[in-house]
Amino acid sequence: MFKLNQYTHNTDDPFGKSSKQGYCLLCGTGMRQQQQEEEEQEEEQEEEEEEEQQQEEEEQEEEEEEEQQQEEEEEEEQQQQEEEDRNLQLGP
Questions:
Q1: What one-character DSSP code corresponds to residue 66?
Q2: What pLDDT is recorded for position 13?
Q3: What would the mean pLDDT of 29-53 be, rounded to a whole number?
Q4: Assigned domain for 64 exists
Q5: Is residue 32 part of a domain?
Q6: Residue 61 maps to a domain
Q7: CA-based end-to-end distance of the chain
Q8: Residue 60 pLDDT > 80
Q9: Which has fewest Cβ within 10 Å: 7, 31, 74, 92?
Q10: pLDDT score for 84
Q11: Residue 12 has pLDDT above 90, yes or no
């Protein structure tokens, strides 16, 4: 067992899980693994955020399309109603 600035590297505890910082300053074994895990977690989180953002954008686009369709249908109905009114006013 080595001792360096209160951080200990125990051969039974190769990643220094019992040490205060979770790694050994002498060899940095645990720290490298910890950094790798953190990087992987960050990448996964970024991917999830990107997917969520894409989903939100798609949903927003769908909503906008639905609104546009609804407006077009309302305009058509209004035009038809106006034509019917005109036809009724002209009459036979």
A1: H
A2: 55
A3: 88
A4: yes
A5: yes
A6: yes
A7: 108
A8: yes
A9: 92
A10: 87
A11: no
Cα separations in angstroms, 43 against 40, 49, 69: 5, 10, 39
Domain with 29 in it: 2-77
Over residues 18-44, the mean pLDDT reads 71
What is the torsion angle, in degrees rounded to the nearest 10, for the CA atoms of residue 15, residue 17, residue 22 and residue 27? Answer: -30
Write the Ramachandran bin of 23: left for phi over 0, alpha for psi from -120 to 50, otherwise beta: beta
Give me the mean pLDDT over the 22-38 stretch: 68
Structure tokens at 38: 């953190």
Confidence category of residue 34, pLDDT binned at 50, 70, 90: confident
The residues facing 8 across adjacent strands are 3
Residues 6 or more apart in contact with residue 3 via CB below 8 angstroms = none
Residues with Cβ within 8 Å of residue 2, at least 6 apart in sequence? 8, 9, 24, 26
The total number of structural domains in the chain stands at 1
Q: How many residues does the chain have?
A: 92
Domain presence at residue 92: no
Q: Is 41 strand, coil or helix? A: helix
